[in-house]
Design a protein that fits this description.
The model has no long low-confidence stretch (mean pLDDT 96). 24% of the residues lie in helices and 22% in strands. The protein has 223 residues and is of the alpha/beta class. It is globular and about 45 Å long. A hairpin with a 2-residue loop joins strand 9 and strand 10. The longest helix is centred in the middle third of the chain and has 16 residues. It starts with a strand and ends with a strand. The protein has a single domain, classed as 3-Layer(aba) Sandwich (Stationary-phase Survival Protein Sure Homolog, Chain: A), CATH 3.40.1210. A six-stranded mixed β-sheet has the order 1-5-6-7-11-8. A three-stranded mixed β-sheet has the order 2-4-3, covered by helices on one side. A two-stranded antiparallel sheet has the order 9-10.
Length: 223
């Protein structure tokens, strides 16, 4: 199963579909609209509209975690794996607590299906390179699939950026960075606009933030 938090039409989901297509039958159920930063929010008091877009392709008016719940418990589907992403932007360190991408993987693990959340760190002003993302994501997934783990396991993968040669990018298994993001606000009267800089966050040696910022594919087992 594939899902994400950038929405059904996001290029990262198309890239992930290309990767997953080489591994077996693909089932996609993703949010109808962007759901970035929703974390592990779920819907219990409102109906969730499901729209069919083709064989095994669905949009849901809900969150990433809702998508996993509806696929596994609403539709009664059965999957070997759930892949969430490829998110446009990193989900490193403390990001995992607000990320809808990671929440979808966590929800799958809670419901007994191993899962991988994948995110493409973006270093401005360099352009996106989804072809390289496909190559890097394939390497990370193949690595994880070789490591047998209980069904409740899930992993967080981040891809570096920019990439000169995908074949030369190192792959690192590492821990989450324990530090906070750069939290700053621009104030105008009684209004506060978030003004933190992603690249100004803490960067502990050996952590996922340090490794990904340094140009490596990072793999972190979260459960």
């Amino acid at each position: 199963m594939l899902t994400n938090d950038d929405g059904f039409d996001a290029p990262g989901l198309a890239a992930l579909r290309e990767v997953a297509g080489g591994l077996g039958e693909v089932f996609t159920l993703a949010p109808a609209t962007q759901q970035s930063y929703v974390g592990h929010r779920v819907s219990t008091a409102t109906p969730l509209l499901l729209t069919t877009f083709g064989p095994n392709q669905f949009k849901l008016a809900g969150t990433p975690a809702d998508c996993v719940r509806v696929a596994l418990r609403g539709l009664g589907e059965s999957f070997d794996w759930v892949f969430s992403g490829i998110n446009h932007g990193g989900n490193l360190g403390a990001d995992v607590y607000t990320s809808g991408t990671v929440a979808a993987a966590r929800e799958a693990a809670l419901l007994g299906v191993p899962a991988i959340a994948l995110s493409q760190f973006h270093r401005r002003p360099h352009p996106d390179d989804w072809d390289s993302s496909v190559s890097l994501a394939r390497r990370a997934i193949e690595k994880i699939l070789l490591d047998p783990a209980p069904a409740i396991s899930y992993w967080n993968v981040n891809l570096p950026h920019p990439i000169a040669d995908p074949a030369q990018v190192p792959l690192t298994e590492c821990s989450l960075d324990p530090g906070p993001l750069d939290v700053a606000f621009a104030r105008q009267g009684d209004e506060f606009l978030y003004a933190g800089r992603y690249m100004d966050r803490s960067c502990a040696a050996g952590s996922d933030v340090s490794a990904c910022f340094g140009g490596a594919i990072t793999i972190t087992r979260l459960g």
